[in-house]
């Protein structure tokens, strides 16, 4: 299984850009990288997914270097409502689609 | 679509009692996952179904846990007998292609407390 490593916590202020990096040194060729967001008392929610280079959607960007051993989730101009736990998930095609959540990064946005 | 629907949202029971958690996946999704979340262990995958067939149950803690998916629109996770260490939030998620390439849609979870 491709193991992921993220910082346990990060602090930021409203209006700043936040970058959360995830390490996945043993990512497999067919694995995708997916990020989820979880608020207290809710299930995780999909943010963005990518395979290589850069992916951007209406809420975030995902940067993946050529070696794919890490990825960075970028949240532009965060607000208080972005305070949540962010999980990096690497797909495990060797186990029929099972993927493993890591410990996640608790982002706290301060006013 | 209403999303993934789980019931009950909260359950408090006594040690030794049987607990049944229910999940209705999003219509058309062919993969269903049961996760357990605790402060100590984070999000753990318990079991994964594809087209109603259990593919991998290696995450199921022990024989007290069982899961079924009798049809494409319903799944249950049963704990019998329950123990205090089973207290957790149990999430059901469904996906169109499987978690490695498809988005996981989670329900709101079932918070279980075993006294």
Summarize it:
The complex is a heterodimer of chains A (111) and B (115). Chain A is an all-beta fold.
Q: What would you note in describing this structure?
A:
The complex is a heterodimer of chains A (111) and B (115). With 111 residues, chain A is mainly beta. Chain A is built from no helices and 10 strands. Helices cover 0% and strands 47% of the residues of chain A. Chain B contains no helices and 11 strands. In chain B, strands 2, 4, 5, 6, 9, 10 and 11 form a 7-stranded mixed β-sheet that branches. The mean pLDDT of chain B is 92. Chains A and B meet through strand 4 and strand 9 of A and strand 5, strand 9 and strand 10 of B.
Whole-number radius of gyration of chain B? 13 Å
Distance between the termini of chain B: 36 Å
Please outline the major beta sheet of chain B.
7 strands, mixed
Can you count the beta strands of chain A? Answer: 10
Oligomer: heterodimer
**Largest two-chain interface:** A-B, 27 and 25 residues
> What string, H for helix and E for strand, traces the elements of chain B in order?
EEEEEEEEEEE
Q: List the total number of helices of chain A.
A: 0
What is the general shape of chain B? Answer: globular
Q: Helix/strand/pairing class of chain A, anyone?
A: mainly beta
Strand percent estimate of chain A: over 45%
Strand content of chain B: over 45%
How many angstroms separate the termini of chain A? 39 Å
Low-confidence stretches of chain B: none
Individual helix count of chain B:
0
Low-confidence stretches of chain A: none
How much helicity do the residues of chain A have? under 10%
Order of helices and strands of chain A: EEEEEEEEEE
Number of strands of chain B: 11
| Biggest sheet character of chain A | 6 strands, mixed
